[in-house]
Amino acid sequence: MSDIVQKTADFLSRRGVDPATVDMHQLIDMFLSEMERGLAGDEGGSLKMIPTYTEIVHALPKNEPVIVLDAGGTNFRTCLVTFDDEGVAHIEDFRKVSMPGVKEEVTAQQFFSTFADNVERLIDKSDKIGFCFSYAAAITSDHDGIPLVFSKEIKAPEVIGKPVGASLLAELARRGYDVS
After folding, report:
1. In-domain check, residue 83
2. Is the pTM of this model over 0.85?
3. Within a domain: residue 166?
4. Which residue of 19, 55, 67, 98 could cross-link 129, Cys pair, CB 3.0 to 4.6 Å?
5. What is the CATH number of the domain that holds 130?
6. What is the pLDDT of residues 59-91, one digit of tens each?
7. C-beta separation of 117 from 90 below 8 A
8. What does the pLDDT read at residue 152?
9. Please, are residues 170 and 111 in contact by the beta-carbon 8 Å criterion?
10. 49-56 long-range contacts, Cβ below 8 Å, gap at least 24?
11. Domain span including residue 87
12. DSSP β-ladder status, 137-139 and 145-147
């Protein structure tokens, strides 16, 4: 056993968290119980869980470009992704900008305008959008997300409670794009 592995094992053992002493079945049962409490809205639970309406896609759209948006942390990323016949993703026209609300507080109009500014160059290339919104949001049955709170330095209080996808589409429609 290497020195670093032995030091790590000794460290864990001294603190009573040696992997050999962990009852995995008990630990899994505890996690499942906490997840169920969170999904049920139990405020005393240790895991906050937000139910979602996720569908399993059985086949990737092959050779068909998809607009991809990633709002997470302090960056907003946009690109076009196409999966080839083997399922390999090909990324084109990648752009990364600061998330609106990082440098200063922004209105909802400014927030969604920034998103639209970065989607406009891609809008004529696909009618499909995949959106990763990495902030706490309630997911609606039509697959939109309604922000509950912002973390990670984002200052956009007017956006809380507004549907992100519908608001982006409304801004694009306001600019004259057919988003139906």
Report:
1. yes
2. no
3. yes
4. 67
5. 3.30.420.40
6. 788 999 999 999 988 899 999 999 999 989 999
7. no
8. 65
9. no
10. 50/136, 50/137, 50/138, 50/139, 50/148, 51/139, 52/139, 53/139, 53/140, 53/141, 53/143, 54/139
11. 66-174
12. antiparallel
